[in-house]
Amino acid sequence: MVSQTIEDYLKAIYKVGKSEGKVTTSATADRMKVSAASVTNMFTKLANMKLIRHTPYQGVELTEAGERVALEVIRHHRLMELYLSQILGMSWDKVDAEAERLEHVISDEFEDRIADALGQPTRDPHGAPIPGKDGTIDEGDDEKLSNVEVGQSVVVRRVSDRDPDILRYLESLGLLPDRRVILKERGVFHGPLVITVAEKDHAISENVASNVWVSRQ
Known about the structure:
Layout: H1 4-20, H2 25-32, H3 36-48, E1 52-55, E2 59-62, H4 64-86, H5 95-102, H6 108-117, E3 143-144, E4 153-159, H7 164-173, E5 180-186, E6 193-197, E7 200-204, H8 206-209, E8 212-215
Antiparallel strand pairs: 1-2, 3-8, 4-5, 4-8, 5-6, 6-7
Helix pairs in contact: 1-2, 1-4, 2-3, 4-5
C-alpha cells in the first residue's frame, strides 16, 4: 500500500519535473513546504520502493511505477477540482485546497462516476490536462506567458493553481483558459509586461506572467 504522504511526494516530483525539468531536493522541498532533510529521507525511501531513480547531485526521476501512481492521484485531484467548480459552484481559487483533501480517498467507482457526470473532461478548471483512465496525459507544448515575444498573439491554455491570490488576480484581468492575449510591451530589467485581454490593456509583473501558460495558435 502507498501512503498519502508518498502519493503527495510522487505528485510533487512529477509536477516539479514538468515545470523545471530537473527534480532537485530544494525544488521538491519548496513545493512540499517541508525541510530539505525530510525530502532527502523520502527520496531514499522512494528509491528503495522502486518508485524513483535517484542519482546523487543529479536529482530524481519517477520510475514507470512511480509515474503511474502520480498520474492517478493527479487525475483524482483534477476531476475533483472540476466537479467542485462545475457541479458545486466553488470558485476556482478554492477548489485546489478541497481537492487536496479528497484526492486520496475517492474510490475507482466514484472516480468513474465523476468522469461520466462531467462528460469525460480533458482539462480541469485551471486548464491543466486531466490524465486519462489509462494513465496517459497530453501535456502539450505550452510556454509561459513571460517568455512570449512582444507583438505575439497567444491563447491561454492553463494557469497555476498554487496561489489563490494570484488566481483571483488573473480572474480579475480576464486571464482565463481559452482567452486570447497579446503581449504589447515588455519593460527593461524585468519590468512589467503590458498585455491586451478582451480589448483592455493591463500591466502585469513577470512573476504573474510566469503563472500563465499559453499556446501560439
